[in-house]
Every structure is written in C-alpha cells, then in structure tokens.
Amino acid sequence: MAQAQPREDKTAAGVLLMALAVVFFTCIDSSAKWLIVAGLPALQVVFARYTGHFLVALLLYGLRDPGAFRSNAPGRQLLRSLFLLGSTILNFTALQYLPITVTTTIMFAGPVVVTLLAIPILGETVGLRRILAVCSGFLGVIVVMQPWGAEFHPAMFLCLAALTCASLYFLMTRLLAGIEANATHQLWSSGIAAATLLPFVLSGWAWPTGGDWIPFVLIGIFGAVGHIAVTTAHRWADASILAPVIYIQIFLAAFAGWLLFDTLPTVWTLGGGAIIIASGLYIWQRERKLRKDVVRPEPSPR
C-alpha cells in the first residue's frame, strides 16, 4: 500500500508547478475541442484522455509499487473518481458547442460551489459575507451564460453540471487528504474512468487521421502531468497560496481559442468572468484569514 508523502516547504516551486499544471489543463481542453471538432465522439476523446493518463500513472507508480493500487478508503476513492469522470464527460461534450473561454470561465465558479457544498457535506460554517460572495459568483455565471440573449446555448447547462461534479470531486479529495497517496489517486481516477468507458466506445470507435493523432496521444499525457503537478504543488505549498493561480487559465484559454479556433471571448464572458474571479478571490482571502485567526498564538502571559 502506497504511503502519503510528507509536506515540504517549497512555496515558490509549488506556485510555479501549479502554474505549469494550469497550462496542461488548458492543453487538455484545447486538445479535446480539436478532436471533437475533427469528428471524434466526445466519449472516445474522454477515453483517450484517461487511458493515456492511466498508462503514465502505471509507468510512474503501478509497476514500481503494485501496492499503490490498494486504497485506504476504496468507497470514497471510487466516488471521487466517478465525479472526476462525470465532470470531464460533461465538459468535453459542452466543448463541442461552446468556445473554450466560456467553458473555462464557468468552471471558475468552482470555489463558489465548493463553499456552498461544504456546508452539508463537510459540516463547515459559512458566514454572511461568504454567502454574499457565493451569490455574486452565481451572478457572474448568469452574466456569462446570458439566458436572456441570442448567445445562450443549452450546452451551458452541461457546464453547470460539470462544475457541480468537479466541485464534488474537490470535496472528496479534501476528505481523502492525508489518507490516500498521490499514486493511488492517479491510478484509481484514471483507471476507473478508462475501464468504465471502454464498453461504450468500442462499438462506435473512430480512428483519428493525419495531425489529429498528435492531440489524441498527448491529451492523456497532459492530464497525467497536470494532475500530478497539482498534487505535488499542494505538498510543497499551502492551498491558500495556490488557489488564485488557477485564474491565469482565463488568459491561456483566450489565447488558445484565438490561436487554434479563431475565437475571442465576448464582453459578457469577460465581464462575468471578472465577477466570478472577484467572488472566488474574496472567498479565498476570507478562508485564509479565518485559518490564520484560528492558528494565531495567544500572547504569552506577562
């Protein structure tokens, strides 16, 4: 059975590694949209993403330590893996219809949803100011979606479902902190996803052609390296320091959308994204302050 590695104080390296992970996450979405636009079924693209991820994890962890396949909490690990799979399927399906900037911006509401779900799931207490920040975050999502305008597409509901699954995945990861090793996380999340999808993709399998083979092969490597980088970054630096780094993805997504698909974010996407990011940063700052207040030592008696 794999053992969880101890924390290390490498804050600067942790931040850089988190930024690198965000680059790889943008590469995942860009590869997925490229392949789906090229005509590959969305489920097959998800399968390629997790199969490649599993092969990398197998080479790095499974072959060296077969005990890494054994989980300390198999039920929670299974649930965590299925939430991640569900989020990916929904997100990749939405990418078939929506620009990367839209799907990425809506997913930025993750900290908002996590804050809301942490109340019933983790029993956390959330004050009035964070509740207002949650409401502001959802207002930003509505601005991005524009349910009143011509730009609205029903696939945006898939983004909301993906956001919910991703938030539950993060909560399950939090519940498994200190219980499960990184190797087990990687092997389970990728292996379960690949095994679950295999029966569904075989009947309608479509081989990529020409240059489409490049993202088809690389998408799984992007996923493996990105998730390994995130886990390592959180071992090197506090989550409260790493959390805002994810927001650089809006610039990366905008650049990828322009470079690969000749699309630019709309004013509504940028405006709604600014509201979502502001609410997420407030929640991050508030939670960081509360943690400091809890651990701040009392003055020594004189």
TrEMBL record:
Positions of transmembrane segments: 12-36, 42-61, 82-100, 106-123, 130-149, 155-175, 187-207, 213-230, 242-261, 267-284
Keywords on record: Membrane, Transmembrane, Transmembrane helix
GO cellular component, one term: membrane
Domain EamA as annotated: residue spans: 13-145, 156-279
UniProt key word Transmembrane helix: yes
Entry annotated with the keyword Transmembrane: yes
Protein name: Riboflavin transporter
